[in-house]
Amino acid sequence: MYSEKVLDHFANPRNVGEIEKADGVGTVGNAKCGDIMQMYLKVEDGIIKDVKFKTFGCGAAIATSSMATEMVKGKTIEEALKLTNKAVADALDGLPGPKVHCSLLAEEAIHAAIEDYQKNHPQTP
Amino acid sequence: MNRIYLDNAATTPVSQPVLDKMIPYFREHYGNASSVYATGRDARRAIDAARRQAAEAINAQPAEIYFTGGGSESDNWAIKGAAFARRDKGNHIITTQVEHHAVLHTCEWLEKQGFSVTYLPVDEYGRVTAEQVEAAITDQTILITIMAANNEIGTLMPIGQIAQVAKKHKVLFHTDAVQALGAVPVDVEAWGIDLLSLSAHKFHGPKGVGLLYIRKGTRIDNLVHGGAQERGRRAGTENLPAIVGMGEAIALAAQSQPDNAKRLSAMRDRLIAGLLEEIPHIRLNGHPTERLPGNVNVSIRYIEGEAMLLRLDMAGIAASSGSACTSGSLDPSHVLLAIGLPHEIAHGSLRFSLSDESVDADVDEVLKVLPGIVKTLRDMSPIYPGKEG
Ligand SMILES: Cc1ncc(COP(=O)(O)O)c(C=O)c1O
Ligand code: FES
């Protein structure tokens, strides 16, 4: 039921881990099934230099976290804020119906990490 | 890759002897058992033989065996049929919170038809007691339906004791024994029950065929209306090859049950002990001893079940989980919640279910690969406190 890309990102997730002294950290939970996703950002000159994640969740949750980190790495904050769950799901060649909400978690986690970064660095939006 | 199948509680492969028995009934003896000509009579004889095999396997009379389209139909028929047939006597049904959905959703539907249902809570191992059942009986109670063995956590219910209580209060007793057959002795006389559901695909028979045992003299309404098949109680041209297959499968399962139970419980206990030893922050779900010989169910903390299943699948191992993420409805297993597990621990549940085709090497392989999978996923988990936690 999962696409090859989902299975690949699940089996070999990119950017797993934590960033010490991260510029922004976002943690979001999925009210629906109880999963938790955490994103860490390193930002320089408004550009996401590094991003890492940790996820407690299903295969789709892990794969979408991994894909989302790849999609925002090297992007500006403005670009990263435009990331949608649909874009993440599309990049993974789609998700089965009941798993679409997992991609929402990835979008929310990135946004939460950026908000945290902006709160910590009000002078450099 | 060597594929290891440890999801036998979901379904089992049709065994070779069962398949061999079925094949002639597709192209050679394909007749309609209701017809008078020779091939019809062949079909009739084959169904009668299967009925005798089934009756013998559960210590019933052939006239008490009714073939159905599987376990779900048997459960639906027993419960709806008993409820409506006894509506004049009362409207109360007693069941438990850990039944299969075929029972639970049937009971919920009956509530919409005006029946009232008590869903008994279970203890931490998933058991109800006969005393609990007795205390729930009112003068309105017409049916008790309690499973013999739980499909998720393998817990065995005290069916014989509950049957005595039911008898004392003149309440019909149905048991879903779908998981029990071939695993523990299933004897309708020793248990003393009125209605019992079975499904062939759980013991190396084909899918889509089951039976309902109806004790002689027990009146229940029909569920499937139509032709006069199954002595006028279950309409529809008999699924001849499937019924023949079920007859053979049930005979073989009953025959090998004692040896099987011994061999599988040793494998089960070795798998449980190995998992508890190798993996930190793990718990066994279900009863330590009063459980199906082939059932292992554990909760592994800080990680989620579907992710483990996918990684096991990549390692060639098929298992299942009661995690919310695997359920379609995104609710964790009602059985794991009923035994008191919080959502996050139900989340990390895994079930391995053995059958007589399982071998020691299967257990070795799980013990070899699962600890590594757990470690990988925990390293990825934001809530894993690490070794010291
Ligand atoms: C305890 C129990 N009851 C009923 C069923 C339903 O049986 P079937 O799949 O034959 O409809 C199953 C299996 O899915 C089961 O494990
Ligand atoms: S995060 Fe639970 S279903 Fe995907």
Q: What's the overall geometry of chain A? A: globular
Ligand kinds:
pyridoxal-5'-phosphate, FE2/S2 (inorganic) cluster
Q: Strand content of the residues of chain A, in percent?
A: 15-25%
Total helices of chain A: the number is 5
**Average pLDDT reading of chain B:** 96
Largest interface: A-B, 26 and 24 residues
Tally of DSSP β-strands of chain B? 12
Distance between the termini of chain A: 41 Å
Placed side by side, the strands forming the largest sheet of chain B appear as 2-8-7-6-5-3-4
What share of residues of chain A is helical?
40-55%
Q: Give the strand order, joined by hyphens, for the main sheet of chain A.
A: 1-2-3
Rounded to an integer, what's the Rg of chain A over CA atoms? 13 Å
Could you say which overall geometry of chain B the principal axes of the C-alpha atoms support? globular
User: Roughly what is the average pLDDT of chain A, rounded to an integer?
Assistant: 93
Distance between the termini of chain B: 36 Å
The number of helices of chain B is 14
Structural class of chain A: alpha+beta
Sketch the topology of chain A as an H/E string, one letter per element: HEEEHHHH
* Cα radius of gyration of chain B in angstroms: 22 Å
* Biggest pleated-sheet summary of chain A: 3 strands, antiparallel
